[in-house]
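Q: For a teaching session next week I want to show students how multiple molecules come together into a single three-dimensional assembly. I've collected the sequence lines for a complex. Could you give me the predicted C-alpha cells for the whole thing so I can convert them for display?
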Amino acid sequence: AQSVTQPDIHITVSEGASLELRCNYSYGATPYLFWYVQSPGQGLQLLLKYFSGDTLVQGIKGFEAEFKRSQSSFNLRKPSVHWSDAAEYFCAVRSGGSYIPTFGRGTSLIVHP
Amino acid sequence: EAQVTQNPRYLITVTGKKLTVTCSQNMNHEYMSWYRQDPGLGLRQIYYSMNVEVTDKGDVPEGYKVSRKEKRNFPLILESPSPNQTSLYFCASSLQGSGRGGASGELFFGEGSRLTVL
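A: Of course. Below is the structure for the complete assembly, covering every listed component.
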C-alpha cells in the first residue's frame, strides 16, 4: 500500500530565507506525486505535480520540487519565503492504477518577519 | 469559474440531529471524495465516488453516508451526528484518466465545512 511521510509537523523560517519541506513516500513503482497548500480558512490548492520526465518540477508561487527515486523523496523548496507563504502544506501520492491519493499529515509553515 | 462548492461553510448542531453537507462541482468530474481534517491527523478520506451511482468507503466511513445520483453532486449525510464528528470537512473532485497523457488526477477542493456537534 502506498504511504506518505512528512516528518516535520511545524517549520519556522524567517521571511526571505530559503525553505525545504520534506516528503517521503512508500510505493513500488513510480508514483504520481503532488504538493498542495492550504492557506488559513481555505481549501487545498495544487502547487505542483510530478508524473514523469524532468525530476525537477516548477509550480505556482515560486515553488519547486525534486523527485529523487533513490531516496523515495519529493521535497518542496522555495529560495525566498514570503510572509504570505505561511500555510499548511500537504504531500500526496497515488499509484498509476488508482485515482485515490494518499496524503501526508501536513507540515505547518510559520514565517517570521 | 471552475469550482467545488460546499454548504454550509459553518454549522453547529446537537447530537442526533440529522444533517447534510452538500457538495457540487461544475467541472464534469467523474471522481468525487469527502475528507475530514483533524489536528495532527491530516486529511482522512471518508467516502469516494468514481462515477454516478458508484460509491465506496474510504478510511473513516463510520457514521457517514453519501449518495451520487448526479455527476455534479455528492452530499455527505450524518444520520445521527456525535461529538467525535466535530471536524473540518472537505469535498474534492477530479477528472479520471491515465495520468500520463490523460487527466492528471489533480484534486480540486471546496473551501471546507466546519462542523461542531454539541
